[in-house]
Design brief:
307 residues, alpha/beta, nine-stranded mixed beta sheet, 11 strands, 41% helix
């Protein structure tokens, strides 16, 4: 058993049919469609030939829809409206009037760096929403590789061939301690000095912990943690409780929150982290994500997430 191919019907034919059915005139329909009357007439002839049906009864004085023409009007009107809605939605996406930016980043980036920039972007594109996933450095890279997010902001220790990386800022890891702590009297804070005190370190898998471990290993030493934390706020709370001294990026704490907190540089090479935009090379980004990423890239280089 064979089935015949469906009729070849164009959007121009449908629009011409609906315009004529609405205005009751080939001339008026042609004006509305910005086409010539012979062109509209030809569209209707082609439509009738494709369907094998007569859609209009024509006389010298009157133009009237046939019974099948009357039945087709609501069906084709609904179909055309749905198509126009879909096309309109794609144009909204294209011009960044709507859409969702899926972004993964470090917790400090999520709290200090992104909120004001998201607010600025949405002032110009209020229809765009943001889905923010924060996590440790390795987790952000994993989200990028899985395609769970459009792009990430994190530190990448070993760039992979499938990733595109754009540096955003570089910041230094400092020592955070309570006023009166013995480390305050040290001439310099090197590995030997740090080894004399209880260290509060970030959890394995975080960018800061990886940098600290690498810097210690370069001197043949191991960074031994008395306490570990996944978030800067937790590490700061441990310092405030007198549990030790913490190695944190400069933007990871605000000395104004507690007058007892003090900071000083660490005399160990390699205690810097580079935060970058990370994305898959072969992944096409939605227009809204492209626009937000371009806004971040256009900023001048920063020295801290608090800038």
């Amino acid at each position: 058993m064979t089935t015949s191919a469906p009729p070849n019907i164009s959007l121009l034919q449908i629009r011409a049919f609906l315009a004529i059915s609405r205005y009751g005139s080939f001339t008026r329909a042609a004006e509305v469609l910005h086409r010539t009357q012979p062109a509209v007439t030809q569209q209707i002839r082609s439509l009738e030939d494709s369907l094998g049906l007569k859609l209009f009864d024509r006389t010298t004085r009157q133009l009237r829809l046939t019974e099948i023409g009357v039945d087709l009007v609501p069906v084709l009107s609904a179909m055309l409206q749905q198509l126009d809605d879909v096309v309109g939605a794609t144009q909204d996406l294209r011009h960044r009037r709507t859409g969702t930016v899926r972004l993964g980043c470090l917790p400090s980036v999520a709290s200090l760096y992104l909120p004001r920039r998201i607010a600025e972007f949405r002032r110009h594109h209020p229809g765009v929403s943001f889905l923010l996933s924060d996590g440790l450095g390795d987790q952000v890279v994993a989200m990028v590789n899985r395609g769970d997010i459009d792009f990430g902001i994190t530190d990448v220790p070993q760039p992979a061939s499938e990733l595109m990386i754009h540096p955003l800022l570089q910041e230094t890891i400092c020592l955070l301690y309570l006023e009166g702590h013995p480390v305050q009297e040290a001439e310099s804070v090197d590995i030997d000095e740090l080894s004399r005190h209880d260290l509060i370190l970030m959890a394995p898998g975080s960018t800061v912990r990886r940098i600290v471990d690498t810097a210690f290993a370069a001197h043949g030493r191991i960074a031994m943690a008395t306490c570990q934390a996944s978030y800067n706020t937790t590490a700061i709370g441990m310092v405030q409780a007198g549990l030790g001294v913490a190695l944190l990026p400069a933007s990871g704490f605000d000395l104004a929150l507690d007058p007892r907190l003090r900071t000083r540089p660490v005399d160990i090479a390699g205690l810097d982290r580079q935060l970058s935009i990370v994305r898959l090379k072969n992944k096409a980004l939605p227009p809204s994500a492209q626009a937000f990423m371009a806004m971040l890239k256009a900023e001048k280089a920063l020295r801290s997430l608090r800038d």
